[in-house]
Amino acid sequence: MILREYMSDDLKRVLELNKASVHFLSPLTKEKLESLIKACDFSYVIEIDGLVEAFILALSENKDYDSVNYQWFKDKYDKFLYIDRVVVSKNCQSQGLGQFMYKKL
Fold first, then answer.
1. Cα separation, 55 vs 47, whole angstroms
2. Would you say 73 and 82 are in contact if contact means Cβ atoms under 8 Å apart?
3. How far apart are CA 82 and CA 75, in angstroms?
4. How far apart are CA 78 and CA 74, in angstroms?
5. Rounded Cα–Cα distance for residues 65 and 43 (Å)
6. Cα–chain-centroid distance for residue 24?
7. How many CB atoms lie within 10 A of CB 101?
8. What is the pLDDT at residue 83?
9. How far apart are CA 83 and CA 99, in angstroms?
10. Which of 101, 38, 26 is nearest to 67 (CA)?
11. Which residues pair with 42 in a beta bridge?
């Protein structure tokens, strides 16, 4: 297992993982993901046997991000770290990958 920063080569797989969990998250297009990654202070993936199996995206305060949830934090707090999404592939759930990424942040 390798925890590393997101790279542009991960885009397709991150979109696949997001789509598989879209019932929990908002949908992402290629363009929206690229824009979100640029705004993120932290964007990590977990790679297992050469395949991205999980990712986490987080933004600090004062970003130009239109998420209703992010805006709520922006209105309430001067300083914060907003975790926009945490996704773990179906095959790797219940193995502590999400917890591991939270601890990294």
1. 9
2. yes
3. 13
4. 7
5. 15
6. 13
7. 23
8. 96
9. 13
10. 26
11. 58
- pLDDT bracket for residue 80 (50, 70, 90): very high
Evaluate whether 6 touches 45 at the Cβ level (below 8 Å): yes
Task: State yes or no: pLDDT of 25 exceeds 90.
Answer: no
The CATH architecture assigned to 2-104 reads 3-Layer(aba) Sandwich (3.40)
* pLDDT confidence bin for 76, thresholds 50/70/90: very high
Is residue 66's pLDDT more than 90? no
pTM listed for this prediction = 0.91
The CA radius of gyration of the chain, in Å to the nearest whole number, is 13
Which residue's structure tokens are 């179906």? 90
Give domain limits for the chain. Answer: 2-104
- Number of Cβ within 10 Å of residue 63's Cβ equals 15
H helices of the chain, where?
11-20, 30-39, 68-76, 97-104
